[in-house]
Amino acid sequence: MATESFKASTHYGDWEGTASADAMLLHEYLEEKGLKKPGDFILAASFYTSERDFVRISAFLFDGKDYESVKDALDAIEDPIPVRRVDVKLTAKEFLDLFKEFRVMLTWHGLELEGREYDAA
Question: Which long-range contacts (C-beta less than 8 Å, at least 24 apart) are formed by 60-67?
Answer without folding.
Answer: 60/6, 60/84, 60/85, 61/36, 61/85, 61/86, 63/39, 64/39, 65/39, 65/41, 66/41, 67/41
